[in-house]
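tokens incoming
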């Protein structure tokens, strides 16, 4: 029996935004789509950041005004990704090792094709 690959379970096109998107709009998108994270991409579609519910909680706990911020101001940089050809075991290992709940999946060119959310 073949080990399932990440691409075998991908179902949806990920929701992505650019880093200059107003943070309040990103939060609205996450709420409307019922998602826990949103991937921030560059003009080539490569992940440059991620904004998660945890990031939002940190901002609220810090009593930071959200109105003037862009997602690029507060996103988590140095995004950990996994290739769509990787095994599901590898994806789970990466998430456990780094203590993350959201994992962008990229194609061979590094472009975001899905998000484990």
């Amino acid at each position: 029996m073949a080990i399932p690959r990440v691409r075998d379970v991908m179902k949806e096109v990920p929701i992505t935004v650019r880093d200059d998107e107003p943070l309040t709009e990103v939060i609205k998108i996450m709420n409307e789509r019922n998602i826990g994270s949103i991937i921030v991409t560059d003009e080539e579609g490569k992940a440059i950041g991620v904004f998660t519910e945890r990031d939002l909680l940190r901002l609220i706990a810090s009593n930071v005004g959200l109105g003037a911020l862009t997602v690029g101001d507060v996103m988590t940089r140095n995004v950990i990704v996994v290739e769509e050809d990787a095994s599901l075991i590898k994806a789970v290992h990466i998430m456990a090792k780094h203590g993350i709940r959201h994992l962008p999946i990229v194609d061979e060119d590094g472009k975001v094709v899905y998000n484990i959310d």
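note: The CA atoms of residues 6 and 84 lie 5 Å apart.
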